[in-house]
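Person: I keep going back and forth on a fold encoding question. Show me how you would write down a chain together with its backbone fold. Please set it down just below, with no commentary around it:
Helper:
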Amino acid sequence: MNSFVLPINGNVGGVIFIIGLFVAVVLIMLLLATLVRPSLRIWPTPGEKSLQSYVFWPLFRGLNVLASLSAVAAWPGGALGLPFWLRILAALVLAVSVAIFVYAFRVLGRDNSYGASGGLVTGGIYQWSRNPQNAMLIVVYGALALTADSGPTYLLCGAMMLVYALMVLLEEPWLAARYGDDYRAYCRSVPRFFNVPRMFG
């Protein structure tokens, strides 16, 4: 259990964690502020060259990179003493989830994925989940945390999972404003994250 303690005496993992924690706190606070006051709207950003875009994307991409680097820097981990077979299983789940994310990204398209309104996509994988990309990335970071089994990585990956969940909540009123009744009907028929009844039905 000693691996959960943050080594902040100058090593690479400690530096990654401190920067990552700062970025995570700032990003999550901005997303929560948008949830409370939609007029602030850090996400979805109003446009490619907007102030929100210059703030959101470096923080968001930075936290993704730092959470991943934390997992690498922490190897071999062992914070919770998870059995090796479970960590291997988590790594396999991570790989499959990344593949599904890439597929969903291609179906939706790059511009729509980054906040454009190029048309409501409801077919293919989007009949199983309204947010398959974010849903898979939440799984990816959960699996990455278990694979690394490191205290700092658990915290940064947990922050990343929260960021993706908040992004979904913030996108919904924005999408409803753009696609109106079509989007609201889609919301009634397809779950936010996983369509478990259809999966087993």
Remarks:
- Helices lie at 12-36, 51-74, 84-108, 110-113, 132-148, 151-189, 196-200.
- The chain has a mean pLDDT of 88.
